[in-house]
Each structure stands twice: as C-alpha cells, then as structure tokens.
Amino acid sequence: MTESSLKPTKMRQSIHKVFINASIDKVWAEIVNTDSPRQFFFNGQCDTPGLTPGAPMAMRSPDSKYTSVVGEVTEFNPPYRYAHTFKFTTMEDAIGKVIYDLKEVDGGTEFTLISENPDLAEVSKTEKTMQDGGKFICENLKAIVETGKPTFSGRMILSIIKLTTWMTPKVALTENWSFEAIKKLHQEERN
C-alpha cells in the first residue's frame, strides 16, 4: 500500500451562514483584504504574493512575527467565492480547505463559511477548532462590515490573543513559513 493511498479521499464539512446587511462588494472587500489585519479572522494579516489559484497564502500576526495558518489559493471568483487550503502551523493535522461563499440576497449578502477536513474516524484538532471558530468568524465579519468594529465578545477575544501572543509555540515563527516552505508543504501533500 502506498502512502498516498492512505490519505482519506472524502472530506467532512462544517458550514456556518450569516446574513450581512451590506452589499456583496463590501463583504467581499473585507474577506480579501490583504492591507490590514482581519479582525474577523482572529486578527490575522493575510500575506500572499497574489490571490490567484496556486498562490501560497499565510495568516500572520499583525507584527508578522508569527504565522498561524498557511494555505494555497484554490479558487478566486470575485465577488462570489474565495477558497484556499488550510493548515494550522501549530497542529500536525492533514491539510483541509476553507471556502468563503457570498450570495446576493434581498437586502444584503448571505455569507457562508465552509470548512472541509479529511473524513477520519476521529475529529482532528483542526476540524474542532474550525467548528468552534466558524461562529466567531461569521458574527464578527457581520459586525465589522455593518458597524466597523467586532462584537463586544470579539473585542475581548482579540485582546486576550494580543496579551497571550508571547505564548505562541516557536513552530509558528514566520521564519519557518516562507512562501517557498508553504509551496513545499503542499507539494509533499500532493505526492
């Protein structure tokens, strides 16, 4: 049996939806922002050479010292869908996928966050974290787009993250997650 045949071929999804009282273009602009930290995504700053399929991407701390998530852009269809592979740098789990879907509806935009993870017997730490984090992402994306700031609980969590950054494991240091390292990781996953 080869190593690649051990990889799961099915993916398990968790789906979170929220209605946002704003135009699809305004919601899209927040999701694909690469100029400032994304408060709806735990203050991660998206770093990428370009949001095009095949491009590496990384969610880094505002000071760029740490990288929490790495991936590769798989779809980019403005303003309807953005998708990328997804791996927490501090977890050994297999690479998953995150999809951001937007749909114009009466009075605003329906935002759907889909997290796909390998369908294994046990729920991975990554899958559990994304299930828990999906609600935060949807609620705070809605609040930021509609009011310009995260929810109260979102602001509290962002404050805690800022205060505990020094506790981040060294494996997440950005020096370990160059774009070349991210590409190599994905190439190894495909082989």
UniProtKB/TrEMBL annotation:
Pfam families: AHSA1. Residues 21-146 form the Activator of Hsp90 ATPase homologue 1/2-like C-terminal domain. It comes from the Bacteria. SUPFAM superfamilies: Bet v1-like. Belongs to the AHA1 family. This is Activator of Hsp90 ATPase homologue 1/2-like C-terminal domain-containing protein. It comes from Planctobacterium marinum.
